[in-house]
């Protein structure tokens, strides 16, 4: 291992001697090349930083939107439960007549549309979660 390190040291010393022996214009050319490479890498790093910040901001926006959608879903589910309880209580209190039979059929339609709304919100919630995971 010491021999290997000594060999690498000799190679590096040879490179240094070769650079020292180069004419000044070649040294300047190498310096310019290295400066250009450094500038390109700094530009790439700056672009990467901007993109990273942009993605971070978008992630935070999507998380806030997801949280508000989840909150809305919980609110709608609570409203649906309350409405179902009220309708059940109203149905128990009503006298069975032809009119009450019509009222009985109406909540089923409303419940179906509310279920559809809940399903749509759950789908939207799922899609937002997928977007957040992707980001």
Tell me the β content: under 5%
Largest sheet descriptor: none
Order of helices and strands: HHH
Q: What count of helical segments does DSSP give?
A: 3
**Helical content band:** over 70%
Summing up helix and strand content along with how strands pair, one would put the structural category as mainly alpha
> What radius of gyration results from the CA coordinates?
36 Å
Key features?
135 residues; mainly alpha; 3 helices; coiled coil; TNIP2 protein
Please outline what is shown here:
The protein has helices at residues 2-21, 24-93, 98-134. With 135 residues, the protein is mainly alpha-helical. The chain has a domain at 1-90.
What would your notes on this structure say?
- The structure is a single chain.
- The protein is mainly alpha-helical and about 140 residues long.
- The chain has three helices and no strands.
- Helix 2 (about 25-95) runs antiparallel to helix 3.
- The longest helix is centred in the middle third of the chain and has 70 residues, at about 25-95.
- It is rod-shaped.
- Mean pLDDT is about 80; it is low at about 95-110.
- Keywords: Coiled coil.
- This is TNIP2 protein.
Topology readout:
Elements: H1 2-21, H2 24-93, H3 98-134
Helix pairs in contact: 2-3
Keywords: Coiled coil
Biased composition (Basic and acidic residues): 1-14
Organism: Serilophus lunatus (silver-breasted broadbill)
């Amino acid at each position: 291992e010491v021999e290997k390190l000594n060999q690498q040291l000799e190679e590096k010393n040879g490179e240094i001697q070769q650079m020292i022996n180069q004419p000044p214009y070649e040294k300047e050319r190498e310096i310019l090349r290295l400066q250009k490479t450094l500038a390109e890498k700094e530009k790439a790093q700056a672009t990467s930083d901007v993109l990273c910040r942009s993605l971070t901001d978008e992630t935070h926006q999507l998380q806030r939107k997801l949280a508000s959608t989840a909150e809305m879903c919980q609110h709608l589910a609570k409203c649906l439960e309350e409405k179902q309880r009220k309708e059940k209580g109203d149905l128990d209190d009503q006298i069975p007549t032809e009119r009450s039979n019509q009222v009985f059929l109406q909540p089923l339609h409303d419940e179906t549309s509310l279920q559809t709304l809940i399903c749509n919100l759950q789908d939207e919630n799922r899609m937002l979660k997928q977007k957040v995971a992707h980001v």
